[in-house]
Specification:
Elements: H1 34-45, E1 76-90, E2 97-104, E3 110-115, H2 117-122, E4 130-140, E5 143-154, H3 166-169, H4 178-185
């Protein structure tokens, strides 16, 4: 049976069971780098809060950007993109596997790609990350896309760089302060 009477009193004082003082434990200062934060964000959120192109090992972003695609209609281009999403599909007649991709470039502009069966079979998507795409710019109903002929996944900087390889793994376009370099060596 439940007790709903409001007149029941609650204890107003609490007696101590033990006569000891709490100990205080000082926490050490943890050195963090922008690179470590970005990889933690990737792990926890699925995307970094910084510009993901800062995590790319190379500074070669191709010969075009998404904004330049209309001017390069019918031409072969090379562009580096960060995967937003992909969609698997099948051709109507032969049911061959093909893909559609959505990427954004170094300027943050979105562009679409079409991977017909030959390209999709030779150069499949290998997870999230950066890809260098080679293909012809096409236009359908006012929407520009790249008909991908070749695609390769690009490496990112190393999450756990040894201090001996820090200069090789940390690209020059990553603005690393002297304090961050010291903490990477420790």
């Amino acid at each position: 049976m439940l007790f709903f009477n409001k007149t029941r009193s609650r204890p107003t004082s609490v007696e101590e069971l033990f006569d000891t003082e709490p100990k205080s434990f000082p926490l050490p200062h943890l050195n963090r780098t922008n690179l470590e934060d970005a990889f933690d964000e990737l792990e926890l959120l699925g995307f970094p809060l910084c510009n993901p192109f800062d995590l790319l090992l190379t500074q070669d972003y191709g010969d075009t950007t998404a904004c330049e695609l209309p001017a390069k209609k019918g031409k072969t281009v090379r562009i580096v993109g960060y995967v937003v999403t992909t969609k698997d599909a099948f051709t109507m007649k032969t049911h061959d596997h093909m893909c559609f991709g959505t990427f954004y470039d170094v300027q943050g502009e979105v562009f679409d790609t079409v991977h017909f069966p030959d390209s999709a079979q030779k150069f499949p998507f290998r997870g999230r990350g950066f890809y260098q795409l080679h293909g012809k710019v096409t236009e359908d109903f006012g929407v520009y896309a790249i008909d991908v002929a070749r695609m390769e996944k690009l490496p990112m900087v190393s999450k756990r760089a040894d201090h001996a390889f820090a200069e090789v793994v940390t690209p020059s376009h990553m603005h690393v302060s002297n304090q961050e370099k010291i903490s990477m060596k420790e």
